[in-house]
Design a protein that fits this description.
13 strands, 2 domains, 9-stranded mixed sheet, two-stranded antiparallel ribbon, 39% helix, 19% strand
Length: 336
């Protein structure tokens, strides 16, 4: 079967070369299908690990909201967004706001879509953590350097699709949020900016309105394999959503079609109470759900390392994390 597919591909390439030699204009009229597979080449374990290592470096001090380490992390994220060619919203990638702990910053960028009127999917991951408490350093690898790394790699994959001339009807807004540990202050600030019309999409010249946000996707703790759904199986991911709006079958089909072999849970370890807690009451997605925006949470669950000094980069499984990011990308590719 593999040999047959390869032969078919070679025949197509051969025919295109013949067309190009005989009639260059005809060759240009050949229809090419841009596959999401084109993006897989840029999804590298070393990039995921590098992001986690940087954010957990002791020089950032645990990235507590209002700290110098958090400001340094925000500046680094701004450079990442610029390098990924995410367009700024409202004229800037950095969006500052005040909290009880001092000045905070969200980092926001967009890949515009083609729909008219415009519609958007919002992808978020908080980058703040506990910081340095009483002289004790909290690295915050799984919580939530892992979610930020996942968001950056998803953005990198969509940039690759854009470079391949793939377009999507819906725009994708990527937001690295500050202040999650301060009652989701960053998510609340982002919503205030949307409500007040401060986020202008320069591709359309118009402010993004609440009615244009079709879905919020929150990436929170995606790196560990220490709390599997089924004991002994590290290949898993949890998606929390409303059944009617979460596109669960799309996720199942992507997992199957791409042969990722991930066990997928649609609740929090079979507990109705914990599912309600971690979906409806805890997390940045709650801010958007309170305003009627459907939301999805991707996570690998809480482990005994979370919010402890032991939440270090060495405790994460980067190969499984790569599979999770791949699945999220394929799911988003269909959702858009």
């Amino acid at each position: 079967m593999l040999i047959s597919r390869q032969m078919t591909k070679l025949r197509k390439i051969f025919m295109i070369l013949l067309l190009a030699a005989a009639d260059p204009a005809a060759a240009q009229r050949v229809h090419y299908t841009i596959s999401p597979k084109n993006a897989e080449g840029v999804l590298k374990v070393e990039n995921i690990r590098s992001t986690v290592d940087y954010l957990c470096n002791e020089s950032l001090g645990g990235r507590a909201t209002g700290s110098g380490g958090a400001a340094k992390a925000a500046g680094w994220l701004e450079n990442q967004f610029r390098g990924l060619q995410l367009q700024p919203l409202g004229g800037a990638w950095l969006h500052g706001f005040k909290t009880s702990s001092g000045f905070a910053r969200n980092v926001i960028g967009i890949i515009p879509g083609t729909a008219n009127p415009a519609r958007y999917v919002l992808v978020t991951a908080h980058y703040d953590n506990l910081g340095n408490l009483g002289g004790t350093f909290y690295p915050g690898a799984d919580s939530n350097a892992s979610g930020v790394a996942a968001m950056l790699e998803v953005a990198r994959m969509f940039k690759q699709m854009k470079d391949c001339k793939k377009t999507y009807p819906c725009g994708i807004i990527f937001a690295a949020l500050d202040g999650k540990e301060k009652n989701s202050a960053g998510a609340a600030e982002l919503w205030r900016e949307i409500e007040s019309g401060k986020l202008v999409n320069h591709a359309t010249g118009e402010a993004i309105s609440p009615e244009q946000i079709m879905l919020e996707v929150n990436l929170d703790q995606l790196g560990a394999t220490l709390a599997p759904i089924t004991k002994g199986n590290p290949n898993y991911i949890i998606m929390l959503s409303e059944e009617a709006t979460g596109r669960r079958n799309t996720l199942l089909n992507a997992n199957k079609d791409q042969h990722l072999g991930l066990e997928i849970g649609f609740d929090y370890y079979g507990s109705k109470d914990f599912t309600n807690l971690f979906y409806n009451r805890v997390g940045d997605q709650c801010i958007f759900m309170e305003h009627g925006i459907p939301a999805v949470v991707f996570t690998s669950g809480i482990t005994m390392n979370n919010n402890k000094v032991t939440d270090t980069p060495s405790t994460l499984d980067y190969n499984v994390m790569r599979k999770r990011i791949q699945l999220i990308f394929y799911w988003l590719d269909k959702v858009l």
